[in-house]
Specification:
Layout (H helix, E strand, L loop, with lengths): L1 H14 L11 E5 L2 E5 L3 E6 L6 E4 H9 L6 E5 L2 E6 L2 E5 L16 E7 H10 L14 E7 L2 E7 L3 E9 L6 E6 L3 H7 L3 E6 L3 E6 L3 E6 L18 E6 H11 L9 E7 L2 E8 L4 E7 L1 E6 L2 E6 H9 L5 E6 L6 E5 L8 E5 L6 H15 L1
Antiparallel strand pairs: 1-2, 1-4, 2-3, 3-15, 5-6, 6-7, 8-13, 9-10, 9-12, 10-11, 11-24, 13-14, 14-15, 16-20, 16-22, 17-18, 17-21, 18-19, 22-23, 23-24
């Protein structure tokens, strides 16, 4: 039992919600030869060599196992659990097994196999998901499988990241929202190809070591993201990611602390980044390193932090930036054949004042004349 608990505890510590008002959820439940732990969204289950029924608080078990005991004996008395290890006995009142949530019920249909790369892609999408409790659909990654190809969407309403073209071979069609919470642990635990099951409310993942993870799908309607992804563009440039990130870092101290407003002017002759702080009556301007300008010039505004996050999500050192207008979503894509992952990031701009838009249109007319 000691070796089993040593293997289970690190996983349990990643799942339990220490902030939960339900103390029973901070325990491992042992019942009928199965240990389970849950935060109601994610559930881990694994067989244990014990057919008895009791609960072990994770915090107490962690303190015991940190002493690196050579053996562990669990003795049950009426209303109490006794842990005997290396001459010591820890006695405590165990929680009621009947109060612990049951394993997800319902029939799980086989969904095929997902490769570890899929879990890494899912985990990578998590940074683009929302955290607003009033928008629960955005707190997960929308996952769609059709024709052996998987598409992942994640957004917080300001930045949208779409990952296309993930090969899942003979995996069954699926569409649902996977919460971000379990994705990090799932990525660490998954090895090779993982068997997936689907019930009306959960996905199941058969992990190494006879561990099964159950993940409750988010039962909400995902927004129509296709409507905000531009398909035609008025201009584009290529950015050196590291150089532009360095530029953003230099601009941050001078930006408005509330709005983080930044104005990006992209022209054939070059580009400039400008931030202002009206409260301190200052402005900061610097040239933007860019190349391969094509199409029309643009003057467009972003929340500096959001644009930085979107740029950091790109894997390639060079990034292609395509735009339509100051008021439409702008697209960042990885540049270079070795970086063609099918990922697209859309950043929503901040609307520039109408007089600035008018000035931009006037400049275009003058240039054309």
């Amino acid at each position: 039992m000691l070796s089993t608990l040593l293997r289970l505890l690190p996983m349990a510590e990643k799942v339990i919600d220490r902030r939960s008002s339900l103390s029973i959820l901070r325990s491992i439940c042992i019942e009928r030869g199965i240990a389970r732990v849950t935060d109601l969204e994610t559930t881990l289950a694994m067989p244990v060599p014990d057919e008895r029924s009791y609960c072990l608080p994770v915090a107490l078990l962690s303190k015991v196992l940190k002493s690196k005991p050579h053996s562990l004996k669990i003795v049950l008395e009426e209303g109490k659990v006794n842990l005997g290890y290396d001459g010591s006995i820890l006695s405590f009142k165990g929680g009621q097994v009947d109060d612990f949530p049951e394993l997800p019920t319902g029939k799980f249909k086989p969904m095929g196999m997902w490769h570890r790369d899929v879990f890494q892609a899912l985990s990578g999408q998590a940074q683009s998901c929302g955290t607003d409790a009033l928008k629960p659909a955005l707190k997960g990654v929308h996952t769609d499988i059709a024709g052996g190809q998987m598409t992942l969407c994640a957004t917080d309403s300001h930045v949208l990241r779409i990952q296309n073209g993930l090969d899942v071979n003979k995996a069954k069609p699926f569409s649902g929202i996977i919460p971000t919470g379990p994705l990090g642990l799932l990525t660490r635990l998954a090895r090779g190809h993982t068997k997936i099951g689907l019930s009306d409310s959960h996905l199941s993942f058969a992990l190494p070591g006879d561990v099964t993870m159950y993940v409750r799908l988010i039962d909400e309607v995902y927004p129509d993201v296709k409507s905000v992804v531009p398909t035609e563009f008025t201009g584009e440039v290529v950015l050196d990611k590291d150089k532009v990130l360095t530029l953003i870092k230099a601009a941050k101290p001078f930006a408005d602390k509330q709005t983080k407003l930044s104005i990006w002017a992209i022209e054939r002759e070059g580009g400039t980044l400008k931030v202002e702080n009206m409260e301190e009556d200052l402005s900061w301007t610097a040239p933007i390193p860019l190349s391969q300008f094509r199409g029309e010039s643009i003057r467009i505004a972003f929340d500096l932090g959001l644009f930085e996050r979107a740029l950091k999500s790109q894997q390639s050192p060079m990034v292609r930036w395509k735009y339509v207008s100051p008021n439409a979503g702008t697209v960042l894509k990885e540049e270079g054949e070795e970086w063609q992952s099918g990922a697209v990031t859309v950043v929503m701009p901040v609307r520039i004042k109408e007089e600035e838009n008018a000035k931009q249109r006037g400049d275009r007319v003058a240039a054309a004349a």
